[in-house]
Design brief:
Elements: E1 2-3, E2 6-7, E3 10-19, E4 22-29, E5 35-42, H1 49-62, E6 73-81, E7 84-92, E8 97-99, H2 108-127, E9 130-131, E10 140-143, E11 148-150, E12 157-158, H3 175-178, H4 185-201, H5 234-237, H6 243-252, H7 264-279
């Protein structure tokens, strides 16, 4: 399966990260010399099965998509022992960039241009019948040329999926995710709104499933939507944020999906107009 200098026949160039039960490497195809990112997951104990399942899901979703703002997925390799899958390797586009949580945009106009690219990538997913369902700053890579790549499609699913367990990230999760209701493109709109809020304000919005450090340690469920406080408008937190940008963010994080923008394409169009507004010098 893997040797010190190779995995699944690909030569390891560098270890570039790690996640839940996974290691991420830059690798090279020995024949073509093509360089890739490689995610390697080994099942050590039974509970690791869900990490294998997420990588398989990432391949299932990613292999159906082709968009400049979504990291390309190339190949899935299953490693077997006694006919059982004990590990998986996912070959992906290698992206030289930093995640949005580590790379604060220098201006609001710059940030909106990045958000616009995220919206375009998600609109592509939605057009193919899939939802990302875990958009957050750490799942958005930005290159030094300001190109956005959406990563980590492991929570992705077909539109309308009802998940058996709560999946998503506290602080970014839409109410329908916290209550195990149907996941739709409106879910990604909420996740993106929560992401934009954090990038500009550096605070998470109140959600039905808050981060653990913000709730009582005995709290184990999800708040009902009518118990969730509406977020403070971003331009009240920071008066430098344009009121129109502030409104676009608040529209995206409405608690009820019907109250959010009609589609991600609409969000993308609005963000493009906001970027042009912010880039236009005052007369």
């Amino acid at each position: 399966m893997s040797h010190q200098n190779q995995i699944a026949g690909y030569r390891i160039l560098a270890r570039i990260g790690n996640g839940a039960a996974s290691e991420l490497y830059a690798v090279q195809d020995r024949k073509t010399k093509q360089v890739w990112a490689l995610k390697h997951v080994i099942k050590q104990v039974e509970k690791d099965q869900r990490f294998l399942d997420q990588v398989k899901q990432e391949f299932l979703v990613g292999s159906k998509l082709k968009h400049a703002n979504i990291r390309a997925i190339q190949r899935l390799i299953k490693h077997r022992k006694m006919f059982k899958v004990v590990g998986v390797t996912l070959l992906m586009e290698l992206v030289d960039g930093t995640t949005l949580d580590q790379n604060r945009p220098p201006t609001h106009a710059h940030a909106v241009r990045l958000f616009h690219q995220v919206a375009l990538g998600l609109a592509h997913m939605h057009a193919h019948g899939y939802v990302h369902a875990d958009i957050k700053p750490s799942n958005i890579l930005v290159t030094d040329r300001d190109e956005v790549k959406i990563i980590d499609l492991g929570q992705g699913c077909r539109t309308g999926t009802v998940k058996k367990r709560i999946q998503g990230t506290p602080g970014y999760m839409a109410p329908e995710q916290a209550h195990r209701q149907a996941i739709t493109p409106k879910t990604d709109i909420y996740n993106l709104g929560a992401t934009m809020y954090w990038v500009l304000v550096r605070e998470v919005i109140p959600t039905a499933l808050p981060p653990k450090d913000e709730v009582d340690s005995l709290f184990t469920g999800a708040l009902d939507a009518d118990m969730v406080k509406p977020p403070t408008p971003p331009n009240e937190k920071d008066p430098a944020i344009h009121p129109i940008l502030s409104k676009q963010i608040l529209d995206c994080v409405q608690l009820h999906p019907d109250d959010r923008p009609e589609s991600m394409a609409v969000v993308a169009n609005r963000l493009e107009l906001v970027a042009e507004l912010l880039e236009t010098p005052p007369k």
